[in-house]
Specification:
alpha+beta; eight-stranded mixed β-sheet; 8 helices; globular; binds flavin-adenine dinucleotide
Length: 349
């Protein structure tokens, strides 16, 4: 009997798979490879909410788990995934500079926000009010991670490429069975696909579509992540990811003219250089109405679990939530109320 069947191999599914493999558990991952938010993500991580200059929830813990987690994946897959890069937040006014300095004085934020104003020296960039630097930032190459991790799973016969068929799933108090394969537990990490899952589709996952451009800007030569309305992530060879849009109405993965225009407008407000669009991609982030993750087990069975609601911050939340769920299943450690789906079950009682 396997320890886990995991449905989904985006950031959530991979985080859980790797967390349990590191504990010598056995797994089978099922994924239809049809739509994935992780494949189109910017992959950026940063410890601060850059609109309001506040600390991300439990971010120290998240970073401390994410760093060794991605390092061990790099060693295992023999690729570079975690690109540690400084992030420069462009200021749009003196008032914003003042808010920043006020925030950088707070004990919880002083580790992450520089108290120096960084003057712009790049002719191609428009930043009359300078930048503030955020520490402990970077981006994870999520598309490369998924490609390499799935190859690893396939070559080690731990992977089924198919749409999960719920009519083939049975369960009792000791184990679950899928197409004759027994496992002690099943974890659903389907991202926005969760809405087709009969055990969890009532949870308030609403989804936020995001679009992103990859552009070539040969003259820019900017080596930091730049945040100024849009973000620009330098990914090498004069290429930059430019993102991202937020659309709460359209739930498709189709790129749109409207999304492209919005990103181009944002880009042109930061740089005054020639550029070429190389790629335009879109996906639906698994966002939740109360902006918190969805972790826990189904009402029908304590062998059926969900790991979802990574929202806009899958890179840091994935490894952290995977550990929380693992400790909950294996050691009975209660889930934090901020992530547990019990908050919705209780409301309905
Ligand atoms: C444009 C954009 C930019 C983003 N930028 C960032 C960023 O810079 N930093 C950051 O941290 N986050 C970012 N995100 C958010 C991040 O992408 C998500 O938080 C994260 O990818 C969610 O991962 P997931 O594994 O839950 O879902 P997904 O990546 O969507 O993975 C779900 C997987 O489940 C599979 N699946 C679903 N249903 C089934 C089924 N029935 N049978 C079989 N397989 C199934 C799918 O094929 C898919 O592979 C961005 C998102 C978008 C759209």
């Amino acid at each position: 009997m396997l320890d886990y069947i995991i449905v989904g191999s985006g950031l959530a599914g991979i985080s859980f798979a790797e967390t349990v493999l590191q504990k010598d558990k056995t797994i089978l991952v099922v994924d239809s490879e049809q739509r994935s938010s992780s494949l189109v993500a910017g992959g950026m991580y940063n410890p601060v909410v850059l609109k309001r200059f506040t600390e991300v929830w439990k971010v120290r813990e998240q970073l401390d788990i994410a760093y060794p987690f991605f390092k061990s994946l790099e060693d295992k897959l023999q690729v570079t995934l975690d690109h540690k890069l400084p992030l420069l937040r462009r200021f749009s006014s003196v008032e914003e500079q003042n808010n920043w300095f006020e925030a950088s004085d707070k004990p919880n934020l002083s580790t992450y926000l520089s108290s120096q104003l960084i003057k712009n020296v790049n002719q191609g960039v428009h930043a009359p009010f300078s930048f503030g630097e955020v520490f402990e930032t970077g981006y994870v190459d999520t598309a490369l991670l998924i490609e390499k991790y799935r190859s690893y799973l396939k070559s080690s016969k731990q992977y089924l490429c198919e749409d999960f068929d719920f009519t083939e799933l049975t369960y009792n108090s000791d184990f679950v069975t899928y197409k004759g394969i027994k496992a002690k537990n099943i974890v659903f990490a389907e991202g926005y696909g969760m809405l087709a899952n009969p055990f969890f589709r009532d949870l308030p996952l609403d989804g936020t579509k995001g679009e992103l451009l990859i552009v070539r800007i040969p003259q820019l030569k900017f080596d930091e992540i730049l945040k100024a309305g849009v973000f620009l992530i330098p990914i090498g060879n004069d290429l930059y990811k430019v993102g991202a849009t937020y659309d709460w109405e359209d739930k498709t993965d189709a790129v749109s003219e409207k999304g492209k225009e919005e990103l181009l407008e944002g880009l042109k407000s930061v740089i005054n250089l020639e550029f070429e669009i190389v790629e335009h991609i879109a996906g639906v982030r698994p966002t939740v109405k109360d902006r918190r993750p969805l972790v826990g087990h189904a009402r029908e069975s304590s062998r059926i679990h969900v790991l979802n609601g990574l929202g806009t911050r899958g890179v840091l939340l994935g490894p952290f939530l995977a550990r929380e769920l693992y400790q909950n299943i294996e050691q009975g450690v209660p889930l934090d109320v901020n992530i547990s789906i019990e908050r919705f079950y209780k409301k309905k009682l």
